[in-house]
Amino acid sequence: MNKKHITHILILLIIIKNVFTQSIFTKTNNVENVIDYWSQEKMSNAEPLLSPIGELNKTTSNNEKGRLLSSVSDSDSINPDVESDNLLTVGKIFFTRSGKDLACTAFVIDNSDGNTGITAAHCLYSREGEYAKNVIFCPGYNNGNPSALGKIPVIGLSVPKSFMKSRVDDYAAIKFDYPGKLQQQTGSFGWGLTPPSPVNIAIFGYPYNGNIPNCSKDGQNCCVWRGYSTLEFLEFPKTTIAWKVPVHIGSGGSGGPWVMKNNLPHDLGYLIGVTDFYVGQKKGKANEYADALNFTLIRILISWPPNQFSKF
Fold first, then answer.
1. Is the pLDDT confidence value at 181 over 80?
2. Which of 96, 179, 252, 291 could form a disulfide with 48 if both were Cys (CB 3.0 to 4.6 A apart)?
3. Could you tell me what percent of the chain has a pLDDT over 90?
């Protein structure tokens, strides 16, 4: 079996997975006073949410699988470069959970309503079953300050039932309370394409640590990592098919987009994953992972108002 066949099998498994993981739960937030709640001081002092972590010796051996999946040459890869690292499309998301002010990364996704974003599900929903509250999105957050677009209240959350039960599909949708279509102001990432592995990508986020080169690691500025990602099977810390990169994005980077370039109109790129968890290695190295996206599930997540799933 050649390398391209291996990649095609993985993609087929993702499609099969789509059929069985379509249920989600949603929550509507009260956005009254949420902008006032997030003072400059609260945003500056918000704690970065820690990424889930696994141990290397409990993962499957992916060395051979990684070689088998290397089916695209440098000349065939998709160029992930963008004109600027300071995209309005990507920003910080602030929220409260268990009485703490916390922060992750989020971004705007292409949708007909123009007011839809994506972040990591583990930012919006805790292991104890608590939803995030007082949620705002600051597109283009830079140097510790919101952009001219300000603080955008998040009126709705959509979290996969599969994440709530078994921690897979670690991505969730957010709905913005914005007068007009926010994506017309920020731009948006396209979605719906599953590339062959490996693929050349860019990862955006607001980490406070990790090992992204030339990153301020202060959570106040957007950092970007560029390189190749491979699609792999995992059994620990959860059984999933995930994209892997040889870097630790860092706390606060959870929810950041993994983006490949493609043709217009989505010249900012197409989404392939969301920063999810990392696995530690010897000598301080780590690999970061993003669950392979279930596009059937994403279509349901971004539907609003909810009309085909449970609500509470």
1. yes
2. 252
3. 63
CA distance 23 to 297: 8
91, pLDDT greater than 50: yes
Asked whether this chain's domains 24-51+92-187+295-304 and 53-84+190-291 adopt the same fold, the reply is yes
CB of 132 closer than 8 Å to CB of 97: yes
Beta strands in 98-140 (DSSP E): 100-108, 116-119, 133-139
Alpha-carbon distance values, 73 to 12, 121, 194, 226 (Å): 22, 33, 17, 16
Give the start-to-end residue ranges of the domains of the chain.
Answer: 24-51+92-187+295-304, 53-84+190-291
Topology adopted by domain 24-51+92-187+295-304: Thrombin, subunit H (2.40.10)
CATH topology of domain 53-84+190-291: Thrombin, subunit H (2.40.10)
∠ CA 73-76-82, rounded to 5°: 115
CA distance 172 to 175: 10
The whole-number pLDDT of residue 11 equals: 56
